[in-house]
């Protein structure tokens, strides 16, 4: 779906590298510490996002900008690793750029993965959570400004931002694998500072079960474009307001790496069901 010239130009650059993207391709975005997802892709071919005209540059050390095409259990997958974050100073439009490109390549189903802090005290560190809904606390929105009518409506509905159908498939796959998959509300914050105990208590009172610095901007753009979304969080740290432990990027990445095995098993099992 080439809804504007920028997306068309970028999609053509991808097409000239990979040939045409197969119909039914699933879009996948890997989060912090989850770059190993790329190794799931059979017959993987890669290109640097820096070679895609218009693709904004990432500044995050843990996010190499790569677009990969391959298969997971014979299902074509386009993987974006190296997402952009608002906290890097990127505009919400730039943060949503990758999702818009995936839509431009014909992707209809999008899986977003992320690292998040658990707020529900029952959630285990190193566990996985399926996002059922979100609270956008970034104060930003990728749809600010004139609406691109060719992409989607001015006021996109967000009543089912996370596809109940894809969610049910993920729950069934987790059950079959004997994996615990929590369900909950993801609070998207701007960052880059982590939350104080008072902010953590507030997020819990607002109804959030996990908190992170990504995903919500991309989901808004994806829903605007009519994509079906599944989002999976690796719970890299526990945020309990009455006994806050220090959180470091190193610890977040180390725990994400530990959870990555479960996440890749879940993805391998669920993607062919789409
Ligand atoms: N807060 C915000 N973002 C995060 C966290 C957190 O505790 N853990 C991983 N990403």
Map the helices and strands:
Elements: H1 5-18, E1 26-30, E2 42-48, E3 66-72, E4 75-81, H2 92-95, H3 97-104, E5 109-118, E6 128-136, H4 164-177, E7 181-188, H5 197-206, E8 210-212, H6 216-224, E9 228-238, H7 249-270
Parallel strand pairs: 1-4, 1-5, 5-9, 6-7, 7-8
Antiparallel strand pairs: 2-3, 3-4, 5-8, 6-9
Helix pairs in contact: 1-3, 3-6, 4-7
The structure holds hypoxanthine (HPA).
The site of hypoxanthine has 14 residues, from β5, β8 and β9.
What's this entry about, in short?
With 274 residues, the chain is α/β, with parallel strands linked by helices. Helices cover 30% and strands 24% of the residues.
If you had to describe this structure to a student in words, what would you say it looks like?
The structure is a single chain. With 274 residues, this protein is of the alpha/beta class. The protein has one domain: 3-Layer(aba) Sandwich (Rossmann fold). Helices cover 30% and strands 24% of the residues. It has helices at residues 5-18, 92-95, 97-104, 164-177, 197-206, 216-224, 249-270; strands at residues 26-30, 42-48, 66-72, 75-81, 109-118, 128-136, 181-188, 210-212, 228-238. It has a five-stranded mixed beta barrel with strand order 5-8-7-6-9. A hairpin with a 2-residue loop joins strand 3 and strand 4 (75-81). The longest helix is centred in the C-terminal third of the chain and has 22 residues, at 249-270. The two termini are 20 Å apart. The model has no long low-confidence stretch (mean pLDDT 93). The chain binds hypoxanthine. Hypoxanthine (HPA) is lined by residues 115-117, 189, 194-195, 211-213, 236-237, 239, 247, 252. Residues 115-117, 189, 194-195, 211-213, 236-237, 239, 247, 252 line the site of hypoxanthine.
